[in-house]
Amino acid sequence: MASASFYISAILLALAVAAVSGYKEELRKTIASCQNGKEVTDDEIEEFMKPLIPETQEEKCLVACVFKQFNVINGGSFDKRLALAVAKDLLKSEPEKVKKIESVINHCGDDIPTKMDNECDLAHEIMQCYVKWEKEVGMI
To answer: Taking the chain, what is the end-to-end CA distance rounded to the nearest angstrom?
Structure first.
């Protein structure tokens, strides 16, 4: 397993729902599945939800795996409609956050290549865009 700084926000919506314990458990199971069942600590979950860009191939591929589990990446493509639908569902009690996430997802949906053969690189592109735009919309 990589260092704690490696655990970045793997799904675009994770940042906004960090306090939801049920969501954390779902994310824990997904990360564990992507790491062949290796146990994931609370600290690793918290690190994973920070707005960082994956640097190594291992980091990029873990993010890609999590994105694929949530169908945010499907067949080498970023599905911004599904990412937005999931965000709206998870954040239905926080409409202001939904607006910010929607803005980020819409920008990233326009900035990210439509399709990439390497899903690990696609995950990197998604996170790079997300970090850029979340600053622009005042999320961090």
So the answer is: 27
CB contact at 8 A, 121 and 61: no
pLDDT tens per residue, range 48-102: 777 788 889 988 999 899 889 888 898 999 888 888 887 777 777 888 888 888 8
Residue 78 sits at φ, ψ, to 5 deg, of -85, 125
* Phi, psi (degrees; rounded to nearest 5) at 128: -60, -45
* C-alpha pair distances (Å), 62 with each of 2, 19, 72: 10, 22, 14
Range of the domain at 127: 4-136
Amino acid present at 103: S
Query: Residues 137, 111: contact at Cβ < 8 Å?
Result: no
CATH of residue 95 = 1.10.238.20
Q: Please name the residue ranges forming H helices in 7-137.
A: 21-34, 42-48, 57-69, 80-90, 95-111, 119-136
The residues, any chain, with a CB within 8 Å of residue 128's CB and separated by 6 or more, are: 53
The structural domain count of the chain equals: 1
